[in-house]
Amino acid sequence: MSKLVIVGTVAFDAIETPFGKTDKILGGAGTFIGLAASQFKVDSAVVSVVGGDFPKDYLDLMSNKNIGISGIEIVEDGKTFFWSGKYHNDMNSRDTLVTELNVLADFEPKVPENYKDAEVVMLGNLHPLTQMSVLNQMHNKPKLVVLDTMNFWMDCALDDLHNTIKHVDVITINDEEVRQLTGEYSLVVAARKIHEMGPKYVVIKKGEHGALLFHDDNVFYAPALPLEEVFDPTGAGDTFAGGFTGYLAKTSDFSFENMKNAVIYGSTLASFCVEKFGTERMLDLNADEVNKRLQQFKQLTQFEIELT
Amino acid sequence: MSKLVIVGTVAFDAIETPFGKTDKILGGAGTFIGLAASQFKVDSAVVSVVGGDFPKDYLDLMSNKNIGISGIEIVEDGKTFFWSGKYHNDMNSRDTLVTELNVLADFEPKVPENYKDAEVVMLGNLHPLTQMSVLNQMHNKPKLVVLDTMNFWMDCALDDLHNTIKHVDVITINDEEVRQLTGEYSLVVAARKIHEMGPKYVVIKKGEHGALLFHDDNVFYAPALPLEEVFDPTGAGDTFAGGFTGYLAKTSDFSFENMKNAVIYGSTLASFCVEKFGTERMLDLNADEVNKRLQQFKQLTQFEIELT
């Protein structure tokens, strides 16, 4: 079991989907990553910032889920980061309605002293300089650094992003973003270009089409579980990343073979995340349900061909 | 080993991709299906029609590949069906430049007498009435009927399509088409609706995202092999269908478990088809290459998780 540092937003989300809408509810990449990783009972610390308006109940909720909250700074006279979005009917695209950075605008992550020796670091989607500042605070080079990012940083902080991903072992990125970052349409060629930028492992998230893991000439393709209905996709990518990293932190085995399993765990947890609004499903998820769904993943993908 | 009847076009194609363009070359759904099925050395008959302009060399080529050509009618004073298309840069969409039905306009399929007892029938993409007329000629109800279709017939012959698919065991269809046919966005719900229309098995082709097999509450998801480059997608769907059906005809095992293997074989053969123009790669494919790629498919998809 490895210690895990997670940097990412802890936020309010307001979400509208064809199935309904919410008021301000608990959200943020750090929250979703932490919740997913908590399934593996790893010793984790979320590094983040919230305002004085952030309910103590939410912090207790995270703490009760075994997520370390000592790295969450509370700016008493500030307001918590707020995002609001509305999904289109196909659930594959959304409009951002509101982005209020608030306390996130001046966020300087502070890794708690007793987590500066963590073996695994998960850099949730944030400005690449913020991600880098977390790495700089670690006492030793972590055994595994996973980074999530998005097109926004490619548009407005590309050089910083390039500098940060040099120090990263695994990047998780969606198919459109990897095409933007590399200028290559073929995901095989794109992954090879990312290898040259630093990350030895590339995880390409394709939403309902699953996820690909690349390492040198090795490829693994985990399909997504076909779902009758996607209720709310918010946080699915972060939940995937949290499941992936949490499983690796728990097993402390960072081989390609074990990363296959990590991808399956990430996909499994993401398949729960989308069943309800925001964090609701992840807050109410037990190990039996996870195991049952893993079994479904096996049935979904495993076959027995005798070569002729 | 079951006898296999294939109905489908035998045609001239002229193809333009970002990588180059061809003159009129051998094409047609029946050709691609037959070539894929021939990998399994099944006793097959292609039922089709060509004009007097169709080279004897092409018929010899098919015959040498062990594809039965006795059901291919030659209309000496007619011209062979001709299709021409141009692919866009992403290879996922194309424009049809020319469609000359020619002898296909009056095509009345005639199943050779010694194939009217075939156990397996593959109905390639044609007017649903033409597909039905093949079924009507069979002496007994075949053990397995597979049907491929496309949006064109949903637009202009929907009632006939509904009547024909009532008699079908397996439908192969792409994701856009299954959404059009059922009016459902969720593929899980769409597959259930197709079950109600007749086919107990539904194969949804998703191109670079792989293929799904549905049967009641069972789902199997075969990803597509991530390719460095797709040279020419023409015939990939037919090759998939031919590989799927050919494998089932060879094994005469029509269970869901064995259909999983059939989907993997279909995907494997389709991954070769797109490597060169038209039928070129399929005409020059040996069993060692197929086995090697099946091994790649195993590495791509198989994992070993111990449930916790």
TrEMBL record, chains A, B:
Extract the SUPFAM superfamilies matched here.
Answer: Ribokinase-like
Keyword Acetylation on entry:
no
Output one GO MF annotation.
kinase activity
Query: Could you name the domain of life of the organism this protein comes from?
Result: Bacteria
Record-annotated Carbohydrate kinase PfkB domain positions: 2-282
Q: Which UniProt keywords apply?
A: Kinase, Transferase
* Keyword Metal-binding annotated: no
* PANTHER family for the chain: RIBOKINASE, SUGAR KINASE
Q: What is this protein called?
A: Bifunctional hydroxymethylpyrimidine kinase/phosphomethylpyrimidine kinase
- The organism of origin for this protein: Winogradskyella immobilis
